[in-house]
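protien #1 (seq + structre)
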Amino acid sequence: MAGRYKIFLGMAAGAGKTFRMLQEGHAEADLGRDVAIGLVETHGRRDTERLVAGLDVVPRRHIEYRGTALEEMDLPAVLERRPELCLIDELAHTNAPGVEHAKRYEDIADVLAAEVDVYSTLNVQHLESLNDAVRELTGVRVRETVPDRVLSDADEVVLVDLTPEALLQRLREGKVYRASRVPAALNGFFKIENLQALREVALRQVAEDVEAKRLVPDDLSLREARLFGSAPAKPIAERLLALAKLAPSSERVVRRAWRASQRLGAELDILVVRDPHAAPSAAEREQLESLRRIASTLGAQLVVEQSGELVDAVVRVARERGTTYIFMGAPSGRRGLGRLTEPVAVRLTRALPDVDVRLVAQRRASG
């Protein structure tokens, strides 16, 4: 039996996620539970530092990497200590090379497997499927991401909400970053329009997560339904296919398709069709690896087909995999003889009359 997992979700740094996590950790300790801090980042915030006091802290492990001294959570020490509840901050963090796992959310999975409850924190912009949306909203590409399943698998998600105006006031008062970093933050990521957009994203994400959990019946309700002869009918299975080119623009198509698949409770396949007679360039090989990473992170299936005819390959794969929706990038303006050919989307809808074809607009990031 795994430990219970609670995630404190916020729109940005400084919203109060770590503070709230520590408050609840103290409340659990006051009730007599064995609570320990696996790792908490205070970032020099005095109010947060005061809350660390009074809780047992598992010492960090010190690692040297390329001549630089680094500190990471000591996973073996946490597992040996084995508290009832462990507080582990910033689950999207990337670990230093040489420790057990590449990412902190993988460390947390080990702690949960050891039947230890975990409280952790996450900013909404670190969800993999929102990577393109956040860049469009803020102009900032977030490099550290986590699979969305990390959030959906949590037993409880607590939205730590703060108005953009209140967060900006905290920033100006030096409660988020050092004074030297405040001007750059105010003119960059912490513009009020960015915070307003991120807050809306966080609110929507939690609402979708709650709705998804509400629609999944637990074992007891299923048993009761069968007992009284009213078991729910099995829903028609949906399956999505994202058509990806070996170009960065396709990453947005994939992430939009994945978000749609989560709303539909559907599986997602990602299809790349390559000309078997053309050797891939270095940029195309790099993009294919990027798609493999995204597919692995999202839990999607990447399919690479060798074919000189795009539509024939898509139709064959869609029929083999039972596709009900196809997502593809919207075409750019066609020139020359291309204006005389029938668009791919039209050819697909004719060849697959029972499959919906959806075009994903390519938007420019705000600057």
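ok now protien #2
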Amino acid sequence: MPGVVVITDCDHDTVDPERRVLDGHDVELRRLQCRTPGEVADQAGDADVLINQYVPITAAVLDALPGCRLVVRYGVGVDNVDVEAAAGRCVWVANVPDYGRDEVRDGAWELEAARPLRRLATLTWGVIGCGAIGTAVAGRAAGLGMRVLGHDVPQVRSEPPIERVPLEELLEAADLVSLHAVLTPDSHHLVGASALARMRPTAWLVNTARGGLVDSAALLAALDAGALAGAALDVLEGEPPDELGRRLARHPRVVVTPHAAWYSEEAFHTLKTEVAREALRVLEGGRPRSPVNQPAARP
């Protein structure tokens, strides 16, 4: 099972976990730091598998890599990969949907700083995007006695009970709206001015998925108008933050973290070892554990 696995780019300080998974197999692991699709095309032409973080994987890149059989992302979102083009070129696209599901969750010494607080059992949690992470979040909310509403809920599901509702109903009923959806052209600015107008003025918006799901300008306007209690954001439309992102970060009703809600040492290890295991599965003639496309059959 000889093969070439190329890491197109990553901001991790080590790739030792990936090497340990691949050790003992006839696999060459090569790490690049590509910043453009052109660099990937020029430097990874012999790749059987691409492990990818940020650099876009376009149709032109895939055309330059005729032997590529899998693109696997460090993370859940695959919005920087042309999934449809990959499918048409007999290339699997996979992610690691569950590596951070257990992690994704200015004070004063006086009661007034914390008010108003509500009893959790009286609150409604709305989950948009009920995949692995969204479902795990729903289970924790239900375990605390909260009613859980869900949009984009799979038809077959086990515990916890998630009430499947239209998006408009979820926005109007939830005390906290939590985003766990993938970013696609259809979901870009899913939460914009009209969606924010449906939310309760006492509600909070939490986004740990993708910054592009939220219209930042509309969110800032809603916060300034007092139409929303607050927002907790681990992701922004521009990263590192642009001027609009910095204004959100400085807002007194906003808590911002640097795209790190996924992180624990255990999640980091799972992320890095699972991308390597996905490479082995495909190199051995199998299918990925977590595919996001169904490629055409390879001749």
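The chain has a mean pLDDT of 90.
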